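User: Hey, my collaborator sent me this sequence without any context and asked if I could get a structure. I don't really work with proteins. Can you help?
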Amino acid sequence: MNDYNFEDWFKDDWERDKKEFYGRENCIVTFDGGTIDFSPDGMKDVKGGKNLTYDEYLDIQHDSWNHTKSSLEGVFFDHSLATYKGEISRKTRRNVLFERLYISVEEPDGTCYDAMESHVWMDIKPFKRLKVHDCVFFDADVYRYLKTGHGKQIDYSLCNPKTIEKIPPYQLPSDYQMKAQIIDDLLWENSKYNDVVDRINWPYVRNEEEYRQKFAQLMLVMKLQDISWIWTSDLLRIRQELWRSTNKSIPKGLLKRITDVGWSQYQPGMIFRFH
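Assistant: No problem. I've predicted the 3D structure and written it out in structure-token form, which is a compact way to encode the shape of the chain:
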């Protein structure tokens, strides 16, 4: 691996992007690493962020990439419809905690998918009559708020729950099922058929052997370490994270070589060369 400093590359890239969209009203831009709201009025809907400057608002959004509740972020920016169900795992005087929250999403174009979030706190008042371990179904609004516990970050949560309904205990999708959907999403987003056929017809035109190979390789990577950034379609960032994994959970030699030629040769997605 060469000595190229990826952190400086991404920083320079962000400064260019910020300059291009700086100050634009009603301007929400989705980059490979995440979504940025450039509208100065956007600060007004961040709970706890009234004292932020505009530059702070932009930089905090950028610094929050890959540290947010990405499923709620998607619902927020896509203006999707969503319903939620989860088990109340803890109650405090002011809040309830859903350790795992199952989300059913319908996007404006009618595409439906399932997602999951962990560690979601909500105001206790609407849930006051419910007990720990009760399972509930509800609608709610997604909002943004400023976190200050470990540096400033903008994250997402839920408020104004409606149609709260106690439901029987249920089984959330397994971790494998959720990872499988993430991988399928990633491969579809980078498929050469993405703009050619509807997703429902994709299985009929893709190379199934190639798909299964890439699916298995990505599943292996996901099992090796927690890579929440896999939600993004930024293949360069994925490669960067694999090489500079800070927790050292990927054995040295597992990914000995990923050449630029090999990287760009395959569609959809990626091929890792194992030796």
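In plain terms: Residues 1-9, 226-275 have pLDDT under 50 and may be disordered. You can pass these tokens on to your collaborator as they are.
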